[in-house]
Amino acid sequence: MSYGDEKAIWVKFEGNPVLGGQLGTCFDLAVLKDGGLYRMYFSWRPKQSVAMSESQDGINWSEPVILIEPREESGWEEEINRPVVLKKDGHYLMWYTGQIRPGQEHGHSWIGYAKSEDGYHWSRLDKPVLSFDEPWEKSAVMCSHVIWVEEEEQFRMWYSGGEQYEPDAIGYATSKDGVSWNKHKANPVFRADPTSRWEQQKVTACQVVKHGTWYVMFYIGFEDVNTARIGIARSRDGISNWERLPANPILSPGAGEWDGEACYKPFAIYEDECWQLWYNGRNGHVEQIGTAFHDGEDLGF
């Protein structure tokens, strides 16, 4: 199925979902292209852990292995999820969400940090590197996306804050070492558009890509707490003056399909004149991971 105008068409893979099924709920993912190998880091709800699966083609994925498990004694990691991983100076760096969830509508979330030499064995800090301490963040910060900007010699993070289920808006922070973060004074930097029905309630869980002279954001927009779609926006500095794609949303639930009620957590890679985007879809209480494609570099702005 495809959405948008001619320059903004995304086509869902006919063999979706690509990960899930007997694994149970798999959600909120990130993908790292490491040499010729795709590595998908995802939230594995039955294990309450971050797991990794590998692929040669971005479609067929190996049996997952657990990388980071819950650590209840820490006081903030009863569940581990929502990872992002980048590779810098030969090391794998991960930011993830640690959660305490006393109930569906309550609980707290923090962002933690881990490091690995081989991508399989991880050491993590005992304390969160980002906590909810601003009014708009309410009881949760989660869903971080981090990039390293060489010319600025700093990490840049976009993260979601607000309600535990689901967060409300997107904030921004910077760091020299990936551990000590400075939040932007004018957070949140990206809010829901109340005039646009498909994203009128919340915007969350973004990925930001430096592409040409733009920072391109793939994000979730919520019509209501149960109905979610995927959109795109762009900004010259990654902070202000975000311009939404006129053809938004680019991916919507497919009636009666595996993603029939919501499309969540996008992560896109551009290579070989094609964008490939992975996302998790929900139908009822089941969440699985699928993929979609967009031919050409032009996203339709």
What features would you describe in this structure?
The chain is built from no helices and 21 strands. The chain is globular, with a radius of gyration of 18 Å. The protein has a 5-stranded antiparallel sheet with strand order 1-2-21-20-19, with no helix packed on it. Strand 11 and strand 12 form a beta hairpin. It is an all-beta fold.
List keywords for this structure.
mainly beta, five-stranded antiparallel sheet, four-stranded antiparallel sheet, 51% strand, 301 residues
Order of helices and strands: EEEEEEEEEEEEEEEEEEEEE
Helical content band = under 10%
Proportion of residues in extended strands: over 45%
Q: Tally the helices: what do you get? A: 0
User: Assembly type of the shown chains?
Assistant: single chain
Outline type: globular
Number of beta-strand segments: 21
Main pleated-sheet profile: 5 strands, antiparallel
Order of the strands making up the biggest sheet = 1-2-21-20-19
Q: In angstroms, what separates the terminal alpha carbons? A: 21 Å
Overall pLDDT metric:
95
Structural class: mainly beta
C-alpha-based Rg, rounded: 18 Å
Low-confidence stretches: none
Short characterization:
This protein is mostly beta strands. The chain contains no helices and 21 strands.
Detail the topology: elements first, then pairings.
Elements lengths: L1 E2 L6 E3 L13 E9 L2 E8 L4 E7 L9 E4 L10 E10 L2 E10 L7 E9 L5 E3 L15 E10 L4 E9 L6 E7 L6 E2 L18 E10 L2 E11 L2 E9 L7 E2 L17 E10 L2 E10 L2 E10 L6
Antiparallel strand pairs: 1-2, 2-21, 3-4, 4-5, 5-6, 7-8, 8-9, 9-10, 11-12, 12-13, 13-14, 15-16, 16-17, 17-18, 19-20, 20-21
